[in-house]
Amino acid sequence: MLKNRADILDVQREYNEAVKKTKAQILVCAGTGCVANGSLLVYDELQAELEKRNLDITIDYLLEEHEQADDNGIAAIKSGCHGFCEQGPLVRIEPEGILYTKVKPEDASSIIDALVSGDVVERLLYHDPNTGEVYPKENEIPFYKYQQRVVLRHCGVIDPEDIRAYIAVGGYEGAAQALSLTSEDVVNEVLTSNLRGRGGGGFPAGRKWSIAASQEADQKYIICNGDEGDPGAFMDRSIMEGDPHSVIEGMMIAGYAIGASKGYIYVRAEYPLAVKRLKKAISDARKYGLLGENILGSGFSFDVQVKEGAGAFVCGEESALIASIEGERGMPRPKPPFPAVSGLWGKPTIINNVETLANLPHILRRGSDWFKSIGTESSPGTKTFALTGEVLNTGLVEVPMGRTINEVVFKIGGGIRGGGKLKAVQIGGPSGGCLTEEFLDLPLDFDSLRQAGAMIGSGGLVVMDENTCIVEVARFFMNFIQNESCGKCVFCREGTLHMLDILQRIVDGKGTLEDLDLLVEIGETVQIGSLCGLGKTAPNPVLSTLENFRDEYLAHVVEKRCPAGVCQGLKRYQIMDDKCKGCGLCARKCPAEAISGKVGKPFVIDPEKCIKCGACVTVCKFKAIEEVA
Amino acid sequence: MGWLMVNGKSVTLNGETSVLEVVRNAGVDIPTLCHHPDLSVYGACRMCLVDIDGRGIVAACHTPPEEGMVIRTNTAMVRRLRKMALELILARHDGECTTCDRSGNCKLQEYAHRFGVDDVRFERTEERLPIDNSGVTVIRDPNKCILCGECVRMCGELQGIGVLDFAHRGSDMVVSTAFNQDIRETDCVNCGQCAAICPTGALTIRSQIQEAWDAINDSTKTVVVQIAPAVRVAIGEEFNLPPGQSSMGQLVTALRTMGVSKVFDTSFAADITVIEETKEFIERVQSGQNIPQFTSCCPAWVKYAEQFYPEYLDNLSSCRSPQQMLGSLVKKHYSKELGIPAQDLFMISIMPCTAKKFEAQRDEFTTDGAPDVDLVITTQELARMIKEAGIDYPSLEETPLDQPFGFVTGAGIIFGVTGGVSEAVLRQAYEILTEQELKDVVFSDVRGYEGLRSCEIVINEMPIRLAVVNGLANAKKVLEDMRAGKVHYHLVEVMACPGGCIGGAGQPITNVNRHVRYERGAGLYRDDKRLPMHKSQQNPAVAALYENWLGYPGSKTAHETLHTTYTCRKKSN
Amino acid sequence: MTTLEQSVVRDEGLNTINVDDNVAAAVKRYGTNQSALIPILQEMQEQYRYLPKDVLNSVAEALQLSPATVYGVATFYAQFSLEPKGKYVIKVCDGTACHVRGSLPVYEAICERVGLEKGKSTTKNRRYTIETVSCLGACGLAPVVTINDKVYGQMTPQAIVMILDMLEEEETSHA
Ligand SMILES: Cc1cc2nc3c(=O)[nH]c(=O)nc-3n(C[C@H](O)[C@H](O)[C@H](O)COP(=O)(O)O)c2cc1C
Ligand code: SF4
Ligand code: SF4
Ligand code: SF4
Ligand code: SF4
Ligand code: SF4
Ligand code: SF4
Ligand code: SF4
Ligand code: SF4
Ligand code: FES
Ligand code: FES
Ligand code: FES
To answer: Do A311 and C79 touch (CB under 8 A)?
Structure first.
């Protein structure tokens, strides 16, 4: 039981001294990606090697919760990724911070040898494929170097299941600081920091809080929004799994600020490990007196409970989330009243995103001035992005607000995989937009992106190259939205259905020019007319691509051609007259009887009959049949 | 008092809670498909969008008015959005208006016309879902449902039952019973309010017009009709008469013209109900047993109690409803008087009520194996028959009702409005308990339209606590409070429909407007005033019936003819 | 974490469990407020691997909700299934990262291999249920497939068919 701030510092000191006593630590990444690449075998081999030599070196997983790879060597793991899986399996040597990449079991003895002699294994260090430069230390590698990790800072560095490890790195000091202030001062500190919501909207957290703080009520609630529904974003998951206490501490601070004594963490159904970690963290925090009655002798009482979602993207929307906690269908409710006035069970309720909350301990501990020194003036602090798609280094990236897309994709991401050409960056998931090359120097912050017709949204950043069909991507997002629309209001329920219908027609090669106009017309009305944020932003991917990539739409509807060669419906097979020997084999194999001709003369494919199965291509010995886009 | 601007005109605020209310009060109509003042705000149809300076386009139904707002309801964008919303709805709607029960009475049809939706540019849904035709009263056609949720909130919020709810999500969302089972299998109490509030033909009331014509045309049958109190003040609305204007005389003429033999007034039986129920009530109060006494004339309420609160069935008055009392009297007694065998008499009730269709089919209410009431048709159905027969209703001469069941008092008339049964019972209970004549017959404490009203009336130094309820959710509240020992009543009147039977689901569709209901209620109170007698015990025809046949209130014959028993209908244990 | 074996074993003896007792036990844990509804349904879904009608009715009764309301909630959330699921639940990630890296061909290959009828999600023999999900948070391994919660990364149509071949072989040798 920690009774005051001094007790926290005691735990900190004890733990750090214990750590100092160990000579070295070998950390083997057991994240999803690394295990898939065989990190568990590396672990076993390292362990065996250590035992053989009888060395007193601890070896630990960076992330546990692993399982043996099966016979295929295919991994079976549930955990969030920590950033650099592309280069896995990763092995880290502490305290030096040396990072070995692509480690194989047979490398174990060299690693131990080097460790004993104080060397490094050069061939296992990260070699920059673009420059050829070699980096021994993790924090010097461009992927990490250009990042500034605030909320991800503990992920993969501390044991998320050990509350002492969290306290040792300064954990719960922010909460202690908050409790030493009045709640008005806490609200003011957050107002001054200008921390803006990381859940998508970018609404200043302090402003929302002051509304809730000024309400008279016998009960208020804090809800942590861990629904993270954007298909392709997983930063909240990493925080909840890798640093659960930072979320709890953030909620405590928010609770104290508005006068709430109860908090809920709403976690997406697909994140069982996050649930497990959070539950463990809550129970430890209770044991340490950091949750419960009279926390740190301040008279403030606060407790937290985890609520698991049941599979609905729309439940990320505040009022739907509340409905879901209350046990109803997750259908958004009309606003006003806003949750800060009347939320969960009609009580004033603050809903903040995981990342927003995880910033709070740092802000309280280091002050709003420190926070404002990062990022831009209107968007201070950092933002995490999930960098995916055709980029070399996929993973989680945290940078100060205001960095450009260029820096993130090329400097950190290492550019396009396979050396291709960047075509577009989709940002903000199903509510965001597609940006072209033109926007490479656009600063990544709330306001710049909004001006460019996109949105930070949750922070999904999908890099697309020439082989990605923009129209198909628009259809993909619309399909997602159609599946996830709650069905309540007319525009979103029916409008997105018809938008999807039209997009499907276009990728099937049946679109018309009028369809493009209709898309815009429905899209605009859906944006304006829908009840909740889901519908209001649903047309963004379509409208932004229609604007930025109109050519590609035109190619589909006018020329009946998919420039990226992706759309099945627009594929055509053609027999090249000059190569065809007229053997007739293809005609016999064609299941659709689409090929005809006279033996000895070039054969022809009837595009009307062809079902694009590709059988003829495989069967032709003379490679006379080609796929044309 | 604040003000704001509506389409360039300054409007004073009067405590309205939404922009919609303000705008409508200012005389400007905004279309709505999912909003009803009696229900919670839902915000789904997006028909009510308006433009507010500085805010852009917002839904009027869930935007609170603010001082100084500049509201425009008819901008190009607003019109475009409305039209698009309608077009989107229609793309999926089974728009077979000509054969639709609601044609001419349908909000969707009206709006499509009014806002000029002349083309639907999207692919229309061809697939059709099955129609649920199983209900005694309510028929569900999901292909006409626009998912406005009014029925869901009606059944859930006002009736506290929740037979209907949304199921699935997104474009697969439907309004459904649990497991999409037939409505006949559910806890539906047949109040019909969901259909009354439905803006389209997705929920309709089973029409039995053909059966009525068949009976009238059947030369072997003598058709006897009874007309419930609330019908007379509403049916005129179908013929452009103002709501509340009583037109009983025309009604009788119309029915005679159509070929009906006898026309009686259910209010006559209501007088008997008062006498029987008051006797029962005084006995219970004096013995202290089965207090409170619940009224039993609303069949939706009776089924509700049987399903959800069987432990309170002994508290229900054992009196049959006036409809069934009259049916029973006609089949058991009057047929003999006429010399026509019961099975050759065909009794049709004209009711504001859809639940009476169910009540008439209950096994308890038969004479020699034949139903006491053969057929129940609603006010709406009768209006349609009158139109079909080509009768110019407003210009009809008045014809008096047939005797002996045509003589009524004001007490029987006010049965049609919430609080009426209580008031009628009080008018008699007072005289019995005090053995004095009641001078002022108006008990204003029990009048009003609030869903749950309670009061205490002292008669002969004895305080009588009453609760008057309309809407079954309010009945639930009373029962739960009783169970928790929070309230103690002597008499509880329960009517399922808003405002009582004047707001029954069989009434002209305008009954979803509470002001129309108030007019109808006022019409009944006017009739009460106009009639020479206001107390059931004054009715000479009733007295004669007791003398000649029933004996005395509560006699054995009275019990066999006028009372009933209830069955537990709870689904599981 | 449940292994393939465990989840399969759990599937058997499904009908021998007393519904009302099970529901009562869950209600005891979560209470009778409506906010208990989703956790209770989750537990029931976990136990039965779908939500049988009896379970839903029993939950409605216990929480004093209308069956239509419970049905409405159960059909709203993707996690709940009112149809018995197959012995193997195969989830194909169709999140953005996986989609861009070719999850659909993988999905199609699975459907073809197990002979799934169009418009259905469970095979006739109740062996497989195939679903698409959005982002499993392992985008680095895109495209990702899970079979009864086991994660398979960097899938190709060929690789997944191989895995299914093995499963089928196991199944037929057991039978
Ligand atoms: C359809 C929809 C989905 C959303 N999903 C999420 C989500 O998964 N996580 C989240 O934090 N916010 C999500 N939001 C935003 C939240 O509604 C809310 O604005 C946010 O949690 C507030 O927290 P913040 O102010 O800290 O950003 C979503 C909004 C909409 C409209
Ligand atoms: S916009 Fe879509 S998700 Fe939001 S309430 Fe309307 S239908 Fe539901
Ligand atoms: S198989 Fe090749 S060579 Fe033979 S007919 Fe076909 S295209 Fe020509
Ligand atoms: S692709 Fe298939 S259908 Fe088309 S021509 Fe070749 S074999 Fe025939
Ligand atoms: S519901 Fe209305 S619009 Fe639809 S068919 Fe009936 S009358 Fe026509
Ligand atoms: S108005 Fe309608 S019902 Fe009349 S003729 Fe034209 S289509 Fe037919
Ligand atoms: S008739 Fe009444 S009880 Fe039946 S579903 Fe409609 S509203 Fe509910
Ligand atoms: S049935 Fe009628 S009232 Fe109910 S949602 Fe559908 S259209 Fe609305
Ligand atoms: S209140 Fe009247 S109209 Fe309504 S169900 Fe009851 S008896 Fe019928
Ligand atoms: S799994 Fe090891 S770095 Fe991502
Ligand atoms: S009436 Fe306002 S949204 Fe339907
Ligand atoms: S998109 Fe498939 S795991 Fe993230």
So the answer is: yes
Catalytic residue status for B297: yes
Q: Choose among C76, C138, C150: nearest Cβ to A329.
A: C76
With beta carbons less than 8 A apart as the criterion, state whether A210 and A338 touch.
Answer: no
Residues in C lying within 8 Å of A, measured between beta carbons: 1, 33-39, 41-42, 72-73, 76-80, 94-97, 99-101, 133-142, 149-154, 162-163
Classify residue A435: in a domain, yes or no.
yes
Atom of ligand 4 nearest to the CA of A612: 1
Q: Is residue A249 part of a domain?
A: yes
CATH number belonging to the domain at C88-174, selected among 3.40.50.300, 3.40.30.10, 2.60.40.1080, 3.40.50.720: 3.40.30.10
DSSP A251-308: HHHHHHHHT--EEEEEE-TT-HHHHHHHHHHHHHHHHTTSSBSSGGGSS--BEEEEEE
Mutate to test the pocket of ligand 3, among A578, A581, A598, A605 (most ligand atoms within 8 A of CB): A581
pTM listed for this prediction: 0.92
**How does pLDDT run across C97-125, given as a tens digit for each residue?**
888 888 988 999 999 999 998 888 899 88
Phi and psi (nearest 5°) for A132?
A: 80, 0
Mutation site, A341, A525, A527, interface B, largest B CB count within 10 A: A525
Q: Where do runs of H (alpha helix) occur along B143-298?
A: 150-153, 193-197, 209-217, 248-258, 266-287
Q: What value does the mean pLDDT take over residues A49-72?
A: 50
Determine the distance from the C-alpha atom of residue A47 to the mean position of all C-alpha atoms in its chain, rounded to a whole number. 33
B455: amino acid identity, one letter: C
Give chain B's contact residues with C (Cβ, < 8 Å): 156, 161-169, 176-179, 186-187, 571-572
Q: Do A232 and C34 touch (CB under 8 A)?
A: no
Q: Please compute, for residue A12, the number of CA atoms within 13 A of its CA located in the half-sphere on the CB side.
A: 12
Query: In whole angstroms, what is the distance from residue B561 CA to residue B548 CA?
Result: 14
Q: pLDDT tens digits, residue range A346-402? A: 999 999 999 999 999 999 999 999 999 999 999 999 999 998 888 888 888 999 999
Which CATH number is C11-76's, of 3.80.10, 3.40.50, 2.60.120, 1.10.10?
1.10.10
